[in-house]
Amino acid sequence: VGGNASSVTDFILVGLFPEFQHSIVLNFVVIFIYILAFLGNLLLIVLIWGDSRLHTPMYILLSQLSLIDLTLTSTIVPKTASNFFTGKRTISWIGCGTQSFFFLMLGMSECLILTLMAYDRYVAVCIPLRYLTIMSPRFCLHMVAGCWIGGSIGSFIHTVYPMHFPICGSREIHHFFCEVPVLIKLSCEDTSVYQLVVVVTSIVLLVVPFSLIIASYTLIFLTVLCMNSVKGRKKALATCSSHLTVVSLFFGPNIFIYMTFASSHSPEQDQALSLFSNILTPMLNPLIYSLRNKEVVAALMKLVGRCGVS
């Protein structure tokens, strides 16, 4: 009886683009991207924590971004791949809630980390003489802890509440993982008020941070234009352009997904944007930051040199 009772509460994940003819190729590509993202972000974390020259606020924040990306992809891809290759498409109510919680927690934390990274660059470029005073190790530790705690609290609220909406019909989720906008579509109750709450929360966690980031970089570019040193100007622009690329890749899809009502976009749009934002972007982030960053490249050469000697 217990088995039957638990199976009634299970959800069915339809997986990645179920109508796509070459789904096995698509799943292998996603797994390959996941492996690259996992190894790339892990390598970046090892480089930052293994090289004392990179123990600065900017790189500590970058290591947190890599940790988030590494964990985010691991929250989604292994379950998606397991469901596809075993043919078992179900996910338990608890499993769905857990996946949704970690996904939201990491996403919200990333919003705040990216904002903090923009503030770090603003202080470094615009008020460099006060940089060490403002971006002290203690301040960074408190800010990073605040990002994780804030993400956890927000995620807990937005996981527990929608998971208790009654589902009268099909428990089939037209997605490859459990995500709030998709879960809302299954409810037979009027969820328009809650969807409005999601939009308001998105304004706080997406639009406000994005606006602060744009304001920071506007001030940075104005300061850079006034620099006499060509070398300093190039270095500031290289670092900031890397960050702005990551910001655009993260905020663009998420603003569309969370700031519009769930009924206004199709399952295919949800899947495509989630695939881009949550799997492809975490693979690109280490490349964006490392290829244009001499300090990271130097740390990598140092690590390769050590391995060669050993």
Automatic annotation (TrEMBL):
Keywords: Cell membrane, G-protein coupled receptor, Membrane, Olfaction, Receptor, Sensory transduction, Transducer, Transmembrane, Transmembrane helix. It is found in: Cell membrane. CDD domains: 7tmA_OR2T-like. One of its GO terms (biological process) is detection of chemical stimulus involved in sensory perception of smell. Its main location: membrane. PROSITE patterns: G_PROTEIN_RECEP_F1_1, G_PROTEIN_RECEP_F1_2. It holds the Pfam family 7tm_4. It is a multi-pass membrane protein. Residues 40-289 form the G-protein coupled receptors family 1 profile domain. One of its GO terms (molecular function) is G protein-coupled receptor activity. This is Olfactory receptor. It comes from Bos taurus (Bovine). The lineage of its organism: Eukaryota, Metazoa, Chordata, Craniata, Vertebrata.
